[in-house]
Amino acid sequence: MKRLFIGLIWLIGLIGPIGCSVQAQQPEKTRVLLILDCSHSMWDRWQSDAKIKVTQQVLLKFMDSVANQNNIDVALRVFGHLNKNSYGTRLEVPFEDGNNYKIQSKIKTLVPNGACTAASALSNSLNDFPNTGDSRNIILIITDGMDDCDGNICDVARQVQMSGVIVQTFILGIGNKQDFQHNLDCAGKFTYVPNEEQYTETLYNIFRMSEEEAQVVISLNDETDHLIETELPIAFYDRQTGVVKYTTLYSIDSRYTPDTLIIDPLVAYDITVFTTPETILKNKQFKAGRVNRLNITVEQGSLCLRTDGKRTNYQVPQYQILVYRHGTNNLVNTQLLGEQHNYLSGSYDLEVLSTPTLRLDDVAIVSSSATELSIPTPGVANISKPKAISSGAIFSMNEGVLEHVRDLDPNKINERILLMPGQYQIAIKPQSSINYKDVKTVRFEIASGHMTNINLSY
């Protein structure tokens, strides 16, 4: 019993306004919507009295403890109380300042009368929260069983969570344990409460522990377990909604001590470390009231491409380099010639956007090492064309096979084109001709760092 109580505190007792030191503003309010089961089965006896009577006593004391909490608002929605044949639900007391007396008055007069409509109540709950965007919204469902509910509670709960309005939904199950044989974890954090004492203490602890938060110390370590000194962006995403909750820059101080991040312990997170490619951790949750240590191993090395250093009397472009995971079309980064960038250890395929494109396959990046590669310095093709030529194309030649490189500009008599070293062929056609026999081909070679003059004449 004690273990259940402690577990419930951890699950639902930590709903205070949690902020993060890297965020611009902390939420001003924590809003808790109580959704109370008032279906006819709540007349059944449990512990010292009927389930509804026990619940009324517990909730009345519970609301007394909330009355002076300025940073917490409570509202009340009820289902199963309208009439015997009704499956309706209603927001009985909305969120507003000083509504404690109204909630207590309504709780005192509740009479279980209808059927279970938890799915409808949960579906309608999204409209119960003020659209201010400055609060942490919590739903707490109190029920004695959901077997006879209308709708699919799991589907409804998924829609509610994906809306981004709700931080977390909690379900307290009272009554007989056999009424909860079905799994309600799909609808929220479910906890069965076996007795009145735990019922009361659980609700008290929701607010008594509302100021608690989760502290996370992030350590990015290399393969030798040493802290990485490089600053890296890190994002914490709400696992349910996929929406980013916190963004920070990992860093360590002069004493090699990582910083502490303050986050909401009610949310399960998918974490992205913006290495290249990204390092992703799934379904991480952190305990409130303690320092959580998140150790992430990041094995990365650096990559830099340069030309072979030949002197030229023309400027060599700073080519873009496309970096792919080896053997895939998964583009992980674009860097420039001469730049150095860190990558996770592994094999990569590179495309240098020169003319023509230069490919380097299966390049190994080794942890804590620098991979430096050189590519040939391009040469220059100085092409002179007679005015009679209207069109033409340049091809690279490799073992007798042609690959189209680019077309000639029909509006220019002279063109200066930077090409990677190799064998080339130009096909040209006079402006006035439509005959294949008038197409002329010229072969030439480009040497690294040199200019080649090509005179196209008939």
Describe the model.
- The chain has 458 residues and is mostly beta strands.
- The strands form eight sheets. Strands 5-4-1-6-7-8 form a six-stranded mixed beta sheet. Strands 11-10-13-14 form a four-stranded antiparallel beta sheet, with no helix packed on it. The protein has a four-stranded antiparallel beta sheet with strand order 18-17-20-21, with no helix packed on it.
- It has helices spanning 2-12, 51-66, 100-109, 118-124, 153-162, 196-208; strands spanning 29-37, 45-46, 49-50, 72-79, 89-93, 135-143, 168-173, 189-192, 214-221, 232-238, 244-250, 260-263, 269-273, 279-284, 291-297, 300-307, 320-325, 331-336, 340-344, 346-352, 358-365, 370-375, 379-384, 389-398, 401-407, 414-419, 422-430, 440-446, 451-455.
- The protein is built from six helices and 29 strands.
- The chain has four domains: 2-208, Rossmann fold (3-Layer(aba) Sandwich); 214-292, Immunoglobulin-like; 300-375, Immunoglobulin-like (Sandwich); 379-455, Immunoglobulin-like (Sandwich), CATH 2.60.40.
Question: Based on helices, strands and strand pairing, what is the structural class?
Answer: mainly beta
Taking pLDDT < 50 over at least 5 consecutive residues as the criterion, the unreliable ranges are 1-27
Shape: elongated
Question: What percentage of residues falls in helices of 4 or more residues?
Answer: 10-25%
Q: What characterizes the major β-sheet?
A: 6 strands, mixed
What is CATH's topology name of the largest domain? Rossmann fold
Number-wise, the strands total 29
